[in-house]
Amino acid sequence: PLRMESLFKSLGIGEYPAEYNAKVHGPFNPARYYGKPDTPLNQVKLRDLPNWLSRRSLHPLSIGRAIQRGYHGHRNKYVHCRRAGPAGVYQFLFFAVGFYWLALYKEEQHDVHYKYH
């Protein structure tokens, strides 16, 4: 157990981001990126796209942290809000139906309906 804890600590798993400063940023928000702000993807011109992509970190921990920020941002917006609407339920149903369709696609692919038998 001690070896795993030291491995996690050396990789930065379970730690605050290095850019986070409690005195400057206040309470920690897992849905916020604390690094240097960059141009959002929707404002990048096509000629600047390779430079923008080269500034992204492709390290597995960075990708995992980005997915975690997206997850927490989604939860804050649709699930943990004061007046939650039906959007969270609709999204769950949409993805459940999509997953069910993908899971049974191979079997239903052969059920072709012909006009003439």
What does this 3D model show about the protein?
The chain has 117 residues and is mainly alpha-helical. Helix content is 52%, strand content 0%. It has six helices and no strands. It has helices spanning 2-11, 22-25, 49-54, 60-79, 87-103, 105-108.
Core attributes:
117 residues; mainly alpha; 0% strand; 52% helix
Structural class: mainly alpha
Query: Which segments are poorly predicted (pLDDT under 50) over 5 or more consecutive residues?
Result: none
Rg value: 22 Å
Order of helices and strands: HHHHHH
Identify the overall geometry.
extended
Biggest sheet record: none
Helicity, as a percent range? 40-55%
Range of strand content: under 5%
Distance between the termini: 66 Å
Nearest-integer average pLDDT = 86
- How many helical elements? 6
DSSP, total strands? 0
Q: Quick summary of this structure?
A:
With about 120 residues, the protein is mainly α.
SSE topology sketch:
Blueprint: H1 2-11, H2 22-25, H3 49-54, H4 60-79, H5 87-103, H6 105-108
